[in-house]
Structures are given as structure tokens and as C-alpha cells.
Amino acid sequence: MPYPFARPYLTTCGLVPENQESPIHFIEPEITSARYHFRRNHFLYPNLLSFTYWIPIRGNVERPMWISLKELYDLPSVTVSALLECAGNKRSLFEPKVFGEQWEKGAMSQGNWRGVQLRILLEMAGIQEGSVEVVVEGCDRGKRKDSAQEVSYTRSLPLEKAMHPDTLVAYAYNDRPIPFKHGFPLRLIVPGWYGMASVKWIKQIEVSAKPFTGPFQTKDYVYYPEKDSDAGAFPVTAMNVNSSILHPTDRDILSRGIHVIEGLAWSGSEEIVKVDISVDNGTSWAEAELDNDGESGYHWIRWSYEWEASHPGEFTILSKSTDASEQVQPSSPLWNRKGYGYNAVDKVKVKVE
After folding, report:
1. Entry's CDD domains (predicted)?
2. pTM, to two decimals
3. Helix, strand and coil percent figures for the chain, each rounded to 5
């Protein structure tokens, strides 16, 4: 759907630190430009001097090393086309409501990331026996609301995920240097996992022989199914199977006739194989047409369904996706008190006149 006389805007959720949604309802290209890529920050942007930028690779390794940007650029590179989704995407839809940035549907974007496989750097340093995780620290730091001390944004990956060929230390996005607000000069990219794993402004990489227990690993980005206790808690990792209805939008008023219902579907682990649509609040379902367009793996796919609105009234439209491992969007999300991983059947209400 072209918009020749207007440009969409990011939707502001917060400015200090900056958190902005992508206008996914109004951008057609499969590759999200840097201009419209969502922004998720925990602290203010860091101060960096790229011409003195080196990163250490240390910890449980045989050959601790420092690597410069130039040395990194000279290593073999790969490009991975991947969707990044904030773990809090759709948080505003939880019932009962949860605290945190009230993201709607736009805390997600996708594009082409180019860089060096993390495993190449780890192999250069030599992983010692007994290693279990790789800890990546970002240059962004500040005070959390639960502590008076400053901390850096730091996350760890299991060694198996860190060694996956698609896990990158990236330096380019859509064939241009990664924009500063998205992690320049180096950003970790962990396809298939929620965006919290893709640490921006990499400061150092450390191989660890024990699990990392920093606050962004063990306090945040954890599913807490109980409101008042930590019982049953488990970590946020791969993106859930999900879908979003983009057109029509919620509370649209439509004329009678044929309308095309359009949207996106995605999963962190498997390819989407089916999207079902209901125009009567789940009483009956029909299968949408998938537009794979040669894309699979870490991309969302677009889908569409022609609906003949033959009579006036109010209608509830639902979308439900299924991936290749037979994971299906649930009718209700896993409620958790930090509001992560919302993936209930998507819903919009429209009126036909």
C-alpha cells in the first residue's frame, strides 16, 4: 500500500532512554531501513571513539587477544537476513496489565546484517575445556531502578548458540555501517532469539566456565508466571510463533464489499507453514495465502486473505499462525509479570457500514 505524499514516523514509547516502535503498518519493503528500525535502549547512548576501538576476547581461552576494527573487517564475512523482535513487543496487550514500556506491535524490524561469525573469533582465541557460556558486554551503562550502582548492559549466550554459524559480530546493516543508534561500530546478532540477546556497542567478549548472573540475565528477560513470587521462572530465549494483522487496523470503519486482510507471521525456531484467519471471532476459520517470496529462516512472511463483507455490523478478525514444528499461536498468552513474549492470536475489531 503506497503512501506517496507522506512518510511514516517511529512511534515514541520513551525518550530517556530512547525507545521507539517501527511503523510496521505503513512500510511495505521486506527489508526495514535504518530510519524505521525500532529502537530499544536501557540507558542513554554511550560515548564512543571508533578510531580507537578494540575489543578484548578473554576469559576461559587459551590465547586472550585484542582485535581492532580493521582486523575484524579483514576476516571472512557473512550476511544473515534476520528479524529482530523486542521481548516486550505487544506488552500493552497483556491482561491483566503489566508494568514496563507499553509496546504495541511495532517493536520489531528486519534487515541484512553483515559481519564475522562469533565462532571464528572464539576459535582464534581458543576455547578451553569446561567453558559453558560466552558473555558479551556493551558500552552502554547506567543505573538500574533496583540498584544505586552503575552497570553495563551485559548478556550471555550458551556456548552452543554462540558457536552457531549465524551468530554474528556485525558491523553492517543493509550494506552500510550499522547506524550508531543501532550499535555502531559492532553489534552482536543472534537470529531467532528475542532482541535482548543482540548486544549493541560491543565492549568485550568473555568465555566463561560458569553461568553469568548479571541483572539483565537473571532479573530481566526472565519469564515470571507468578505475580508475587519467582516460582516457575525460566529465561527468555527464542521468539515465540506469532502473527500480526496490519490491515485493516483496529477500529477501522469499512464499506461493504471485498477487503484484503493482510499481516505478518514469524517464529524464532521454524518456518511459518500456515496462517488461519477468522472474521467471526473464532467461530470459523479459513487459511490465508502465504507470500514466502523465497524467504525463510529468520524472516517474517506476509500473508493475505480476501474477505467479502456483505452486510453491516461489527466484526472481530483473528489471525493464528503455525510453524513447521507445529507450534501454534495460543488463544491466550503466557501471562508473566514482566510482560515478555506475548504471542496470543492477534485481534482487530472493525465496523462495516
Report:
1. SO_family_Moco_dimer
2. 0.95
3. 10, 40, 50
